[in-house]
Design a protein that fits this description.
Helix content is about 25%, strand content about 30%.
Length: about 170
Amino acid sequence: MTAEQGQQVDYSDLKVRAFQRRDQEVVSRLYNVGLLAGQIASNDTGADIDNIQEAYFDDETSHFWVAEVDGQVLGMIGVAREREHTAEIRRLRVEKDHQDTPIAAQLIETALAHCKHHGYLKIVLDTHFDPDAVVDLFDRFGFQHTRTKPSAGKELLEFYLDLYRSPKKETDK
């Protein structure tokens, strides 16, 4: 059931739920497909993907979710504690044929609600995705693009969000 196969996908059935062990294979595949040039970055071991239970569920302030439509996992996201009041959004991935859909936004909304519930004040994330593809999405949630630096032949974009400040309104931009 992919958009590419010409079938209409009903995203009103989109559900974001906690990762379950049965999701491991698809989560591993999504992670590997999203690697920059097929390589794990020098600052990333990828160990959390092999040990999701320990990495995201042993501490209640961390968590990992998958997004599914009609029972098929099409995306994922994780939140991990970085420092006392700072969380990192990690592993945001959406199946290629479903990237221009509500899936990524729903995953981010879920992660932000979790961060607010657990009292985080700041959220950080980085991505290698094309700036045109992600800046608008992150900006919609109030993330600030802090810097861009070269990494493995592509640009690494870093973002942060202060949860104690309200996001800019359209009229404030």
